[in-house]
Design goal:
Layout: E1 22-25, E2 31-36, E3 42-49, H1 61-68, H2 78-87, E4 91-93, E5 101-108, H3 112-124, H4 130-147, H5 151-164, H6 176-180, H7 184-194, E6 200-206, H8 212-223, E7 243-247, E8 253-261, H9 270-282, H10 287-295, E9 302-308, E10 313-322, H11 326-342, H12 347-364, H13 368-380, H14 387-397, H15 400-410, E11 417-422
Parallel strand pairs: 2-6, 7-11
Antiparallel strand pairs: 1-2, 3-5, 3-6, 4-5, 8-10, 8-11, 9-10
Helix pairs in contact: 1-7, 3-8, 9-15, 10-11, 11-15
């Protein structure tokens, strides 16, 4: 029996790399990335389409199109689709991001041949029923009304609009009128133009059985039409950052958002900023948490984050605090930014963050679905093959001097928008 009074030995994390995987090209040219791992008799099949906001011709049509795909085909309605998938113990999710539209099918191995044809049917002949679109519009209008009563939502909407511009795919906000303007023909057009083979990548993970890849080729090569489209990204004209306060009645908490335009994962400074952000406000032991939550008690939660998209990115600082603490909270945020710029990180703190991040990387490699998610990010964001290993190398080797250089370059107060939403 182990001695429970003694802690287990610790050691360095030496090897962190993506396990081997296979790439197969389907008959219609779509790449299929295969991660054959695990012991459970279950697989995940995820289709990723470049069909998000950068490909829209009408605001909110990308999200609406994806949400309505499961609501009916030429051969069965949404209820019948759901009933069939449920009968075989399968789940079909439609996760949406700003850049992409995804369909993720989870299936037991023994029923994969039963549920794959349903997915193929959804992709081959969706009909986007008008009554389902009407329900989508009404539901989102009600949800929006509720969301706009929350200061943190209002603050986030405003700062993204300021950073990217109110007409940019990453900056525009949806309103009740935006949803009301959606037409069934808009969804059909968006689907026909962008849910095509040249915009698609497919990821299969889990305990893969013989014949699965052939089945995928048989069904999905026929269901997904040929074609390829390019994003429609307007030129950005960025104003000088400002500090704004938006009055929001009937609230005891004020929301604070501070941020700036940054870059995506392809930028050479992204990996270093990933480490810097973690130190500053990216985990529970961060400087923002230690000062503003633990020492000052101004807020329950405060954090900073990098928000990398396919074609751009942003850096944000976010918190909610009592209205009487807004001024002092902002003073402390800018104080911590100044410390990051002017003082090198001490080795003990840097080593702790290294271990925290490397532990997170271990979790990312735990299991076939997680591994497939890493591969998906690399493929969808057009990153080099060794990207994961390179960011691990940066975490292990970045110096305090390099972190200070990045802070001086990207954390200048004159480059930051500031939005507060609350009473007054």
């Amino acid at each position: 029996m182990p001695d429970r009074t003694q802690a287990p030995p610790t050691g360095d994390i030496s090897q962190l790399q993506i396990p081997p995987y296979e790439v197969v090209t389907l008959s219609n040219g779509i790449p299929l990335y295969v991660v054959n791992m695990g012991t459970q008799e279950v697989v995940k099949l995820e289709l990723n389409f470049h069909a998000g906001r950068p490909f829209e011709t009408k605001h909110s049509v990308a999200r609406a199109t994806l949400s309505q795909l499961k609501e009916g085909t030429e051969r069965r309605d949404g209820a019948a689709i759901a009933e069939t998938l449920d009968f075989y113990g399968a789940t079909l999710q439609t996760p949406y991001s700003l850049d992409t539209a995804n369909l993720a099918l989870y299936s037991l191995n023994k029923y994969f041949d039963k549920v794959l044809p349903v997915l193929a049917e959804i992709l081959e002949c969706p009909v986007f029923p008008q009554h389902e679109l009407d329900t989508f519009i009404q539901r989102n209008q009600v949800d929006l009304q509720i969301e706009l009563s929350k200061p943190d939502v209002v603050a986030y909407r405003k700062i993204t609009e300021l950073i990217f511009g109110e007409s940019h795919p990453y900056g525009y906000n949806s309103y009740a009128e935006t949803y009301a303007a959606l037409r069934r023909e808009d969804l059909m057009q968006h689907y026909r133009e962008h849910f095509v083979a040249g915009n698609c990548s497919i990821f299969l993970s889990g305990k893969i059985e013989p014949g699965m890849i052939a089945l995928i080729d048989e069904y999905l090569s026929k269901a997904i039409r040929p074609g390829k489209t390019e994003p429609n990204l307007p030129d950005m004209t960025q104003d000088a950052p400002q500090r704004l306060h938006l009055s929001h009645a009937d609230t005891v908490q004020s929301a604070i958002r501070i941020g700036r335009r940054l870059f995506n994962r392809t930028h050479p400074d992204y990996a270093g900023m990933y480490v810097l952000n973690t130190i500053f406000g990216g985990y529970f032991g961060s400087r923002l948490m230690a000062n503003i939550r633990e020492e000052k008690g101004y807020t329950y939660n405060i954090y900073s984050s990098l928000d990398p998209m396919r074609y751009d990115g942003a850096f944000f600082i976010s918190t909610e605090t009592g209205t009487e603490f807004v001024k002092d909270t902002l003073i402390q945020v800018y104080h911590e930014l100044e410390v990051m710029r002017n003082e090198p990180v001490e080795e003990e703190e840097l080593e702790m963050v290294r271990n925290y991040l490397l532990g997170g990387f271990l979790n990312m490699l735990d299991g076939p679905f997680n591994v497939a998610d890493i591969i998906k990010t690399i493929v969808v964001e057009d990153l080099p093959a060794g990207y994961f290993e390179s960011i691990v190398h940066t975490v292990k080797n970045i110096t305090a001097e390099e972190l200070q250089r990045l802070a001086q370059l990207y954390l200048q107060p004159g480059d930051l928008w500031e939005v507060s939403v609350g009473a007054g």
